[in-house]
Design brief:
single chain, 232 residues, mainly alpha, 7 helices
Length: 232
């Protein structure tokens, strides 16, 4: 083999080796880029799923707060009514609490456990406030307090003040005071517990949506009368 052929052969082999090395480097670079793009796509899909979950959770919690506010409005009307000479529209209270229960189910399906617990405390607090009002109404109309305070069993979505308000149409209160005036301490306590429950729920929602600090743990029922109840 002469020198010219040897040089040509060496040059060809070097060129092939360089081309192979370049192809290998390009293939590895392409594979790395594809893996990076796949990882970015997975992260984007995960972020989209998380964003969608947060939107659904936020919508459920907003609806729950709206239904809780509707129940509070019915309670406010009952506390301020003067008093017991006309039947109060407690069918509105029943409808409000039923709507609240439906909204709470949505919270259970879409929200983290901390939010669910805070929502449960709100529902129990509203039930306890209805019972408190019913007891005051029953006592004011003369001996009906026992039925008003205990008429609502676990799972019963009837409003405890209903029988007392019906009775009031025929047996007006002698004092002529509203329930709030008859027992201002109970009314004040109910308002404090109401606001505390709502604040805890909102704080838990903010944490779940990533817009607030970690909420304080909900221990027991927010409302004293609802403490120890086994469920909604």
């Amino acid at each position: 083999m002469n020198d010219t052929v040897a040089v040509a052969l060496i040059t060809s082999l070097s060129t092939l080796a360089a081309a192979g090395l370049a192809a290998l480097v390009a293939a590895r670079s392409t594979a790395r880029q594809l893996r990076y793009q796949a990882a970015l796509a997975r992260e984007e899909r995960a972020e989209q799923r998380e964003s969608g979950r947060r939107e659904v959770c936020a919508a459920a919690c907003e609806r729950f707060l709206a239904q809780a506010d509707a129940a509070y409005r019915v309670l406010d009307e009952g506390w301020a009514a003067r008093p017991f000479r006309e039947p109060l529209p407690w069918q509105d209270g029943f409808a409000a609490r039923r709507a609240l229960d439906e909204a709470y189910v949505r919270v259970q399906l879409t929200a983290p456990e901390a939010v669910v617990r805070a929502g449960r405390a709100v529902v129990r607090g509203i039930a306890a406030e209805f019972r408190t009002h019913g007891r005051i109404v029953g006592e004011a109309v003369g001996g009906g307090g026992g039925g008003g305070a205990g008429a609502e069993g676990e799972g019963d979505r009837g409003v405890s003040a209903l029988s007392a308000s019906e009775l009031s149409a025929s047996e007006p209160s002698a004092s002529g005071l509203s329930a709030s005036e008859s027992d201002p301490a109970a009314r004040s306590r109910a308002l404090r517990e109401r606001f505390a429950g709502t604040e805890r729920f909102v704080a838990a929602v903010r944490v779940a949506l990533g817009v607030g600090e970690e909420a304080a743990p909900v221990t027991g029922s927010v409302v004293g009368e609802g403490a120890g109840e086994p469920g909604v």
